[in-house]
Model the fold of this input.
Amino acid sequence: MMETITKSNQTNITAEPGKMEIIVVKEFDTDRGFVFKAFTDPYLYAQWIGPIGSAIKIEKFEPRDGGSYRFLQKDKNGKVFAFHGVFHEVLFPVRIIRTIEYEKLSTRGHVELDTSKFELLPGNRTRLIIHSVFQSVEDRDRIINSDFNKDMNEKFERLEELISKSITSWDL
Amino acid sequence: MMETITKSNQTNITAEPGKMEIIVVKEFDTDRGFVFKAFTDPYLYAQWIGPIGSAIKIEKFEPRDGGSYRFLQKDKNGKVFAFHGVFHEVLFPVRIIRTIEYEKLSTRGHVELDTSKFELLPGNRTRLIIHSVFQSVEDRDRIINSDFNKDMNEKFERLEELISKSITSWDL
Done:
């Protein structure tokens, strides 16, 4: 029964041609306080932010207005990626606005502005809307043409597992 | 003679219809180290960031990667506006990437990502490019339809005055 409900919460990714933005919408079968926590608690965040098979090392994580963060992501082949940014706003349990930069030696200065909104739905459910704005259409397309859809689906699959485990352990 | 050179450095503002961005280009008759300093030294910044006749009060100014800032701007009629944000990157004398939010009680969460680039030109001159990205076309248009062009021109007029005063006092 749980399985059926989970599968109905499909990830909706919108990236219109020629635009500088990506909009990701996903619903979860838990309250927005918990989904928000999964974005702001470094121990929870590390468990789902990478695709399946990847490992995350959080170096810095200050989820508050003006805080900074940096984390490393090691994929299943051992390749390491780094990401960092600043939190412009962390407003529990409603909204997170932050910058994100994927660190690559030759192309620094390409930054994304992410707004994550956590909407309350009836039945203790949550609608997450992640709105990402890029500095150019090219920057946006580079992200979309990587494994964006696959990675996002895998992350959310892991986040749902985390939610379902947490609900189970809470119920025990 | 100085007057003629100054007036030739016109401000070029691009805001294409339907886009989420504004591009401002302006050249200055001084080295980029000084223009960069005018963006990162709070005492200099306060002297030019508001339009003519306005007063600035800097509450917080941490021009470094991960730093925050907040300042108040009082216009000539005594009306006070507040702005705040975070510095994603402050790379002397090349680039500043930061967020900006104009604080209005009813509309929080509307944030702009600004990239300022300071390009070295021959003859000890500087090309400043400010690239602002908004969360929506509506947010961009609201800014453009305010006194954006007039304000920007006035700010740069004040910045040029500051530069010319500084050069004069340096030369003394």
